[in-house]
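Weekly puzzle thread! Below is a chain. First person to post its structure in token form gets bragging rights.
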Amino acid sequence: MNKLLFYFIIALCSMVTVFGQGNNNSKKSVYKFKEPGNTACFVCDHVFRKKRQILYVTHDKDDGSWQFLCGQSDHTDANAKVISLKEATKIDKTINDLYELPLGAGAERKSIHDTWIPFTFK
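Winning reply:
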């Protein structure tokens, strides 16, 4: 009887895993930053509307704020949007690669498929 119960439990667990019920992380986005997810950060409206990719990132030395921008020079103050840091990782999960970027530094890349190239402000 115990052997039959054991096989039943194994079969039930397999069904739960197959149908996705046992995978609680399947819909969660990755978040690696040490700052709380609700930390405000800046994005340009091109990134916010998902019209352009995040190609330029800065981590401000004075106030610790993050900026996630498209890297183009056609911005005005009207283009600035404030969102949560966690929301930024939902727009582009590859920014999680920069979670250890120090204050006063930034990173850029030519496309979303390229490696981030870090830099520091002087």
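Puzzle host: Confirmed. Bonus trivia for everyone else. The radius of gyration is 21 Å.
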